[in-house]
Each structure stands twice: as C-alpha cells, then as structure tokens.
C-alpha cells in the first residue's frame, strides 16, 4: 500500500544511489526483526521478549536490485531497565551512523491496541528528530498476519485516533510486515517498502533527513568518540 506525501527539499537522490533507513519504535515492537526482514538475513539480534534486546545502534546492509540498502537498528523506547533519556541519546547517534543522513525514518508499530506508551513513543520520536521528522517518516506495522482477511487500508480507520493523526502527518505513508515471511512473500514486502520510500524521497525533492540543530549540538560529540 502506498500513499502520497508532502514535498520537501535537499540533497538530490536517484534510484541507483545508496538508500539509508533508520528503524525506531517502542521496545518489543519488532524493530530488529524488521531490520532483518529488510536485509534478508539475521544481522540484528532478535527474539521474543517483553524487554528490548537491542541496547546500541548498529548497522547492516545489503544489495537490492543493484542498490546498497543501509539499515540502522536502534534500541526501543520504554525499557524497564534503561531510562528513555539514555535511549534517546543513543537513538540520536543513528544520524551519524547513516551519514550524511537517512532517507527514511521507519516507525515500527505492532498491530493491535495502541497503549499510552505507544502514544508517548510517537511524541518522543518527534522530539528526538525535530519538527521535520514526519516529512521523512513511514509507519511500518508488524504482525501483518494478524490482519487476517482484512487489508491495511481497512484496518487504519479503526486505529486509535492519535495513531491515525500521526499517519496523516506522515503523508499517509504506511505498510505492514509479517516478520516470519520467507521467499517471495518476504521479497514482496521489501519491494513494497522500498517503493514507498522511493516515492517519498522523490516527492521530498530527492532529500534525506538532516537536522541542523542536531548537527551543531550532538554530531561533533559523537564524531569525537569515534
């Protein structure tokens, strides 16, 4: 499923260049599993757990249709063991790991009831990345298999109103993954996501996410640590 998006500006991009993707979301929503699905192999540690497994940002890449796809896996918010402030600081590092900046910020959200923590996660993500976040954001629902005979288009109007509002802010860009899919189904899911990203990038004038405030305040610090 693909939707329209708002125009933007910035560095030019063609379908043959590197595509940089950052995955964010609440802990235990399937962030790492989604990254593995995109990469076509198990690069990021992922297992069933009530608590986030990922503690640090990490990257993986693959060749897809002659293009390099770079994926940044980030720790999930609302861990019982790590404060959100610490996690937020680590998530900010994803901009340097995807230098000069990600083309897409993918918010991973599990299908089903939207909790207060989910709603706070939406706000935190926008706070971390700034006012331009939604111009580069796509909502990716995990557990696509739970839709049954329904389509994502039919599911969205039944969602929590705040999630619907966020989807609207993101230009109605969303898709769904079954992270247990294999073979042709897996390839179809990745193809759909890449198509949504490509369309967004084109409508954004070929730009990728940058945050001047982030660069001036945080990037020199993280660069010095390397």
TrEMBL record:
KW Nucleotide-binding (keyword) present: yes
InterPro entries the record matches: G_AIG1 (IPR006703), GIMA/IAN/Toc (IPR045058), P-loop_NTPase (IPR027417)
Keywords: GTP-binding, Nucleotide-binding
Entry keyword Iron: no
GO terms assigned for molecular function: GTP binding
Boundaries of every AIG1-type G domain copy: 16-218
PANTHER family: GTPASE IMAP FAMILY MEMBER 7, GTPASE, IMAP FAMILY MEMBER-RELATED
Family per record: Belongs to the TRAFAC class TrmE-Era-EngA-EngB-Septin-like GTPase superfamily. AIG1/Toc34/Toc159-like paraseptin GTPase family. IAN subfamily.
Protein name stated in the entry: AIG1-type G domain-containing protein
């Amino acid at each position: 499923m693909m939707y329209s998006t708002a125009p933007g500006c910035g560095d030019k991009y063609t379908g043959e260049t590197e595509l940089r993707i950052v995955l964010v979301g609440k802990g235990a929503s399937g962030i790492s599993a989604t990254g593995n699905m995109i990469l076509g192999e198990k690069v990021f540690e992922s297992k069933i757990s009530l608590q986030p497994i990922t503690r640090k940002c990490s990257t993986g890449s693959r060749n897809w249709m002659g293009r390099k796809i770079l994926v940044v896996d980030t720790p999930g918010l609302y861990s019982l063991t790590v404060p959100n402030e610490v996690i937020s600081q680590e998530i900010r590092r994803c901009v340097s790991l995807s230098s000069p900046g990600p083309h897409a910020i993918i918010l991973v959200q599990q299908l089903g009831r939207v909790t207060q923590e989910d709603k706070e996660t939406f706000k935190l993500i926008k706070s971390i990345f700034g006012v331009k976040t939604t111009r580069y954001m796509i909502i990716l629902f995990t557990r696509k298999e739970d839709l049954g005979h329904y389509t994502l288009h039919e599911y969205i109007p039944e969602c929590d109103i705040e999630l619907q509002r966020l989807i609207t802010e993101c230009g109605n860009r969303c898709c769904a993954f079954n992270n247990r899919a294999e073979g042709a189904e897996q390839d179809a899911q990745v193809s759909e996501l890449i198509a949504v990203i490509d369309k967004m990038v084109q409508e954004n004038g070929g730009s990728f996410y940058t945050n001047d405030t982030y660069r001036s305040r945080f990037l020199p610090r993280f660069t010095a640590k390397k």
